[in-house]
Task: structure prediction
Amino acid sequence: MAIMNTVGVIAKFEAKPGTEQEMERFFSNGVAIVKQQPASTMWFAFRAGPTTYGAFATFASETDRSSLLSAGGPKLAEEFAALFTSPPTFEMVSILESRPDEMTLPIAQVVDAGILAIKKTLISTFELVKWSPVYDNPGSHSNLFMR
Result:
């Protein structure tokens, strides 16, 4: 059973025009910090417009939220302050409802399932092409893909 995240934070960032690459680096640094947090922490960075960015995170406890805020967002925003037209905002929220079963599925399981599906598709496709009567026909277009 998944742990329900009960609290969150919404961060809003208004970037100076022309700082897109620096903002990507800012969020890359942010995800590195989030990866050090408990596995129940969910974090999403997004772009809402040409210069409007945000991040949304949910946590299983107030302690987890405080831990990320003391290590992450506000500190990182200070380091990258030159990118913003105004100081970022960090709004604390309470989670009323969520769909945790799908959200907290470990990424490795999703990746493994995707790779397995791709492998099955490739094997099935290979078997179809390999045993297809057209494969042995020298004038066949499918013959081009098997060389």
In short: The first strand starts at residue 7 and ends at 14. The helical segments are 20-34, 62-71, 73-79, 100-103, 107-131. Residues 85 and 104 are 34 Å apart (CA to CA).
